[in-house]
Amino acid sequence: MNEAQLPCWIGLSVRLPPIMVHALIRIATRKSPLALWQAQWVAGELEKYGHSCRLVPLISSGDGDLRPISATAEVGMFTKRIQQAVMDGDADVAVHSLKDLPTQTIDALQLTATPLRAPVEDCLISRAGWSLDQLPPGALVGTSSRRRAAQLLHLRPDLRIRPIRGNVQTRLDQVMGGKFDATILASAGLQRLDLPEVPFQTLPIAVMLPAPGQGALAIEVRSDDATAIAATAVLDDPATRASVTAERSLLRHLSGGCLAPIAAYGRAEGSRLLLSAVVLSADGTERLETSGEGEVTLAADLGQRAADTLLDAGAERLIASAR
Residues of the chain whose pLDDT is less than 70? Predict the structure, then answer.
């Protein structure tokens, strides 16, 4: 074979496509059915990108303590154990309900993704499927959320509010068994657990503003774990990220924490971001509200402005009294 007959590729440097190597991603989660569903959903999404995933189920301090939340009042009681597992290297990714995640950041961890948000509304659940107006006078409603209790009492001061704890099914069983006339659960949880047989009425946003971050997931990884950062960042939804950033910025500047009677709802409309927020007294007799809008890229600023407006109106006093 002479030189003219040599194959054209001989002597050339041929660059082949890189071979993608995906390490096993360990996902830390609480053991409740809802938390496991959320972690399994994240695993399924990551597997679409070729990753292998394994769940690391853990028990948080909030799972093991069934006293009323107001009695324990531990910030991050549903998230600390999960975060610690990631920081200790026992897991690579933490999956939380964003509304449970404290607004105070941890340098060792990075919030890499807030996937597309589920419905943010709350649902009123009763054996008869009553609406809020149909609840009998003096009805006993189980909720450990000061936000929900205060908004209920603002509209229906005759209702009796008592603490209720446990996972979604446990709370449903208490209502269906007659211990309570009704309870309130997040629509997202009912949807994710596929409980269509539960008799409920969706409460309009105007009646029951959600908790900051409600319906959204939070995916955290170690700040120095480039592999996990790259793997999970693709699950981020920009509109959800902007909305919850505004809500959590408001919560942080109010210094309220997830246990205070504070509600907020952000929603992106094109390049604009709208935010509504309320702060109430624990008994619902006082209610402060504000709304505003700004650029999606300035979500945190919008949340801070809304917080300042509420603080100027006396929100700090209501939050302090609720504690």
Answer: 1-22, 60-76, 256-259
pTM reported for the whole predicted model: 0.87
Order of strands, edge to edge, in the sheet holding 140-142? 160-162, 140-142, 182-186, 122-126, 200-202
Q: What token pair was written down for 5? A: 């007959």
Instruction: DSSP letter for 40, please.
Output: H
User: What pLDDT shows up at residue 322?
Assistant: 83
Quote the CA–CA distance of 28 and 213 in Å, as a whole number. Answer: 20
pLDDT in tens, 70-117: 544 455 677 999 999 999 999 999 999 999 999 999 999 999 999 999
Burial of 273 (0-12, 13-18, 19+ CB in 10 A): buried
Confidence at residue 255, expressed as pLDDT on a 0 to 100 scale: 86
Rounded CA gap, 268 and 289, in Å?
20
Whether 261 and 146 have beta carbons less than 8 Å apart is answered as yes
Tokens of 311: 């603080």
Percentage of the chain surpassing pLDDT 70? 87
Q: Which bin fits 225, alpha (ψ -120 to 50), beta or left (φ > 0)?
A: beta
Q: Is the dihedral of CA 79, 151, 296, 45 positive or negative?
A: positive
Q: Label residues 288-323 b or e (16+ Cβ within 10 Å = b).
A: bebeeebebeebbebbbbbbebbbeeebeebbeebe
Residues 262, 319: contact at Cβ < 8 Å? yes
d(CA 244, CA 250) in angstroms, rounded, equals: 10
- pLDDT recorded at residue 257: 67
Among all residues, which ones are annotated catalytic? Answer: 100
